[in-house]
Amino acid sequence: MCGIAGLIHRGNTSDIGSEMTAMLQSLRHRGPDSTGFAVYGVPGPGEYVIRFKVAEQEDLATGFKIHHEIRARRALVDERILEMGGEIVAAEEATEYAYRYRVRFDGDLKRLAEFIEDVEGAEILSVGNALELIKDLGDATVVSNQYSLNGFTGTHAIGHTRMATESDVDIRSAHPYWAYPYNDISVVHNGQITNYWIMRREMERRGHRFVSSCDSELLAVYTADKLDNGHSLEDSLRQSIEEIDGVFTYVVATKDRLGMAKDTMAAKPMVLYESDDLVALASEEVAIRAIIPHEIDTYDPYDEEVRVWQA
Question: What SS3 state is found at 91?
Answer without folding.
Answer: strand
